[in-house]
Each structure stands twice: as structure tokens, then as C-alpha cells.
Design goal:
Layout (H helix, E strand, L loop, with lengths): L13 H13 L6 E6 L4 E12 L2 E12 L6 H24 L5 H5 L4 E3 L5 E3 H15 L13
Length: 151
């Protein structure tokens, strides 16, 4: 796995970064947030529900951000690093929203959680990426299906 240099020397504890993330999300009325650190898979997962309205109907848009954890002999420092990177990643996304550069679904599209008919959830990117790469390799730009028939 690639080594990440950004925030490698951060002194900010990952717990403080999580608190900063929750505070940032709270500014946008996001109260349901979950962090999962999968040490065996070298991943940090941040999930939250974004409350909004679509055609005057209240809805929650589920978001799942999956971040690779940098290689490190010091697990705590790697957690500090990746949480800090996540904080600034989210901060930049929400700043784009505040400036009306994009709308929420446009900015978070790869991270939106979709469910198939069996109730299995994956992000839009996890569904889109293999089909897109296959189309690029074959030169055949066929239809990309984000949600199959669930079979």
C-alpha cells in the first residue's frame, strides 16, 4: 500500500479529530455518525445520514466514506493521520456546499449508500467503478447499472 505523507506528523489525537468531524457535521444538522476502524483490512469507515428534503418530503441520504489507512508501525499515529485527513476532506466538501458550488448529492455521489433488492448496501462508487473500468478497457461504452435486479 502507498505511504501517505500528508498529516503524517500530526500531533492531533484521532479522538479529537473525530470530535471535530462530528462538530462539523452537526453544523449541517447531521447527528447520526458512525466511525469504524477495521484494522485487519486497513480501513477507516465514516458513515452518516444527511437529512434533507426532496420535493418537500423529508429524507435521509446515507453516506459511507471508506478510507485506506496508511502503512505504519505506529497504529495510533496512522489513526491520527487518517482522521485528520478525513476532517479536512469533509471540511472542503461542506465549504463547497456553503458556497453553492455544488449540491449535496453531486458532491457526495461516490459515497451515497444504495441498496439492492436483497437489502445489500454498497456505495455508488463501488457499483459504478468495475463497470466503468471494464468499459474503458474494452472500448465498449455500454450502459452502467447502479442497482441490479437483486438476483
Amino acid at each position: 500500500m502507498k505511504k501517505f505523507n500528508s498529516y503524517r506528523q500530526t500531533k492531533v489525537n484521532w479522538g479529537k479529530s473525530q470530535a471535530n468531524i462530528c462538530k462539523l457535521l452537526g453544523r449541517f444538522n447531521i447527528t447520526d455518525t458512525r466511525f469504524t476502524f477495521l484494522q485487519s483490512q486497513n480501513k477507516l469507515i465514516c458513515e452518516f445520514n444527511y437529512p434533507t428534503e426532496i420535493k418537500e418530503k423529508p429524507v435521509n441520504i446515507g453516506i459511507r466514506i471508506i478510507i485506506p489507512v496508511p502503512e505504519s508501525k505506529d497504529t495510533e499515529q496512522a489513526k491520527n493521520q487518517i482522521h485528520r485527513a478525513l476532517y479536512y476532506y469533509l471540511k472542503s466538501k461542506f465549504e463547497a456546499l456553503e458556497f453553492n458550488l455544488v449540491e449535496f448529492t453531486q458532491e457526495f455521489m461516490p459515497h451515497i449508500v444504495l441498496f439492492d433488492k436483497k437489502g445489500v448496501s454498497r456505495t455508488a462508487y463501488e457499483l459504478f467503478e468495475p463497470q466503468y473500468k471494464k468499459n474503458l478497457l474494452t472500448g465498449n461504452q455500454s450502459e452502467i447499472k447502479l442497482i441490479g435486479d437483486g438476483k
